[in-house]
Amino acid sequence: MVPVKKSGMIDRWVKKHLVLYTGATSHPFILSIRDGTIDFSSFKRWLGQDYIFVREFVPFTASVLLKASKNSDDSSDMEVILSGLASLSDEISWFKQEAAKWDVPLSDVIVHKSNQNYCRFLESLMLPELEYSVVVTALWAIETVYQESFSHCLEDDSKTPPELLEACKRWGSEGFGEFCRSLQNIVNQCLEKASEEELIKAEVTFLRVLELEIEFWNMSQEGAK
Ligand SMILES: Cc1ncc(CNC=O)c(N)n1
């Protein structure tokens, strides 16, 4: 049997699933920020819901860190994931400040169904039996969707409202892009060593993240349904 070449798996998956990937990274919600037509009530809805999501994302990232420390032979994996985890502390403070600025009461946000589904998915990935290769793929995908999305709002010809620039820079800037590329290298290395079964699980997980991200943007744009 001819062995399947597995290097650069992420690039290949992105190409293979380009329609879904673009659906998540150039969603109408993001395009409405980019062209300045966004309805601020949508932004406020996103803000309140994303704060809830990020609070759940902290233990998820911690669980990936734990698996990196046990499973990876490369200690730099742990350092990259730790830096991501550490930056979430600042991110939570930013959400609180931003919410105060926009009069979004974070204490009584009603968790929307799409957000609940996403948080439940994160919980399922925290189970100890889930392989490091699968969960680090999810981490990469979750971070990269935000990176690519918000970077569109910083492009030269974008008309992003000044009030939203800080949010866009948080994820769209070069620094966060560098972090996502480091994650991508980790994932590619991991997948080179993964079994065929793990590869399939990781690809399915990648696709599920894209779907959940699209649903999250839909919810932000369309409101409670
Ligand atoms: C729904 C969603 N996906 C990805 C991110 C980015 N990661 C951490 O902030 C996020 N904040 N929210």
TrEMBL record:
Would the keyword Electron transport turn up in this protein's UniProt record? no
Recorded hits in InterPro entries, A to Z, give: Haem_Oase-like_multi-hlx, TenA_E, Thiaminase-2/PQQC, Thiamine_Salvage_TenA
- Summarize where substrate binds, as residue positions: 50, 91, 143
Record's superkingdom?
Eukaryota
Q: In which pathway does it act?
A: Cofactor biosynthesis; thiamine diphosphate biosynthesis
Which GO biological process categories is it annotated with? thiamine biosynthetic process
Molecular function GO labels: thiaminase activity
Q: Which Gene3D superfamilies match?
A: Heme oxygenase-like (1.20.910.10)
Coiled coil, from the record: none
Keyword entries, A-Z: Disulfide bond, Hydrolase, Thiamine biosynthesis
* Active site, per annotation: 213 (proton donor)
Query: Reaction(s) catalyzed by this protein?
Result: N-formyl-4-amino-5-aminomethyl-2-methylpyrimidine + H2O = 4-amino-5-aminomethyl-2-methylpyrimidine + formate; 4-amino-5-aminomethyl-2-methylpyrimidine + H2O = 4-amino-5-hydroxymethyl-2-methylpyrimidine + NH4(+)
Q: Family, per the entry?
A: Belongs to the thiaminase-2 family.
> A single GO CC term, please?
cytosol
What is this protein called in UniProt?
A: aminopyrimidine aminohydrolase
